[in-house]
Design a protein that fits this description.
Length: 196
């Protein structure tokens, strides 16, 4: 009887050590940390937007629709509660991603409009804000890349056998990752036109 109990304890220990629970915990924390960095960079961009809009407003007051679009896109981004739990709900994550995409698009239109105003392009405040925005966009890309890799590692761990059994037992599910919104646009080569 004692040998049977020892054997059961030994088998239980081996089963638990190979179940992947601790790995899932560590990878879940890694995803949360990487997601926090993504949010941090998006917040940095959102904080730059009002300053950029105000500088552009002084030079390009009649570009009201572009300025309103940027302001509305920023407000939409701000209305979504960006928390670590957001990555656990694929629908909310998709809404967040769409709102960020709208802001990116609106900022691109704003920067295109600025090309029509030489005095604006020469303004030191505008150039500084534009440089900060470009740096922030790069940081966002890096943070998103790190998040995507962390999610991939987590999702693989949750889905492989025997870890998937542990994941089912403890209700671990795969997490959503960033996706390309418009695959056709990505597969089409951009048109390059040089100025006169």
């Amino acid at each position: 009887m004692r040998n049977l109990l020892t054997l059961l304890i030994l088998l239980s220990t081996l089963a638990l050590s190979g179940c992947g629970y601790n790995t899932m915990q560590a990878l879940d924390e890694e995803v949360t940390a990487k997601w926090s960095e993504v949010l941090n960079q998006y917040q940095r961009r959102a904080d730059l937007v009002p300053n950029l809009v105000n500088v552009v407003k002084g030079y390009a007051a009649h570009e009201k629709d572009v300025l309103e679009t940027v302001t509305a896109a920023r407000a939409k981004v701000g209305s979504i509660q960006a928390t670590p739990e957001l990555v656990k709900d694929a629908q909310v994550f998709a809404k967040f991603q769409a709102a960020q995409g709208e802001l990116t698009s609106a900022l691109s239109r704003l920067l295109v409009v600025s090309e029509n105003y030489p005095n604006l392009k020469a303004d030191a405040s505008f150039r500084d804000l534009q440089a900060q925005l470009e740096g922030t966009e790069n940081r966002i890309a890096v943070a998103r890349d790190r998040y995507i890799k962390a999610v991939k590692d987590y999702n693989v761990t949750v889905r492989v056998f025997p870890n998937n059994l542990t994941a089912m037992l403890f209700s671990y599910q795969t997490k959503p990752s960033f996706t390309v919104e418009n695959e056709k646009a990505v597969s089409t080569a951009p048109k390059v036109e040089f100025g006169k």
